[in-house]
Design brief:
- This protein folds into 2 domains: about 140 residues, no CATH class; about 40 residues, no CATH class.
- The chain is built from 5 helices and 8 strands.
- It starts with a strand and ends with a helix.
- About 15% of the residues are buried.
- The structure holds zinc ion (ZN) (2 copies).
- One zinc ion binds next to loops.
């Protein structure tokens, strides 16, 4: 979605659009995330201008699919993310007496030219909505390291057969003392 800067007026306006996820999914394949997106990103956006700043406030929705880091099952995760972005017009760089940047200046991204490409901003905000670790649920019990069974679906017998290793140590100690 590319917006001409002149269309962003002081009067707030809203628009709805969808951004494709193919590029984003290609990036995710290389990155640290165990997610991909199954649907285009639906964006509801309100924008307005104030002096040299453009403001975008919106909500994005899509559906992600993750692979659980514990049990390796695939699961779906609805993404529903509010966002607010401010872009300041980039100042032409002046040699010599550039003012010191304050922390506030650094936090605000800039735009140049007479168009704003919203796709990278939407992509970043969509990634912000993903958890850092892909888990099918917070209390996923994962795979048994002994037999590989998915402990969310099945109970395995490893524990019953081997017992608690700490108890096993105690048992052997007792046996040792008796002799
Ligand atoms: Zn899981
Ligand atoms: Zn097991």
């Amino acid at each position: 979605m590319i917006l001409p800067v002149e269309d962003i007026t002081e009067e707030p306006q809203s628009c709805d659009f969808s951004d494709p996820v193919e590029d984003l999914n290609r990036r995710l394949e290389k990155g640290p995330h165990d997610f991909r997106f199954l649907r285009p990103i639906d964006v509801h956006l309100q924008h307005h201008r104030s002096d040299d700043c453009l403001f975008f406030v919106g909500r994005l929705r899509t559906l992600a699919e993750g692979e659980c880091a514990r049990c390796t099952e695939r699961f779906q995760l609805p993404v529903d993310q509010d966002f607010a972005i401010a872009l300041r017009r980039a100042e032409p760089e002046e040699e010599g007496d550039r003012p010191e940047l304050s922390a506030d200046d650094l936090a605000v991204a800039t735009y140049e030219g007479d168009e704003v490409d919203l796709a990278p901003l939407v992509e970043e905000q969509t990634l912000v909505g993903l958890p850092t670790r892909a888990l099918c649920s917070e209390d996923c019990r994962g795979l048994c390291p002994g037999c590989g069974v998915n402990r969310n679906l099945d109970s395995c017998r490893c524990k019953a057969e081997e017992g608690d290793p700490r108890l096993a140590v105690l048992r052997s100690l007792k046996v040792g003392r008796a002799h």
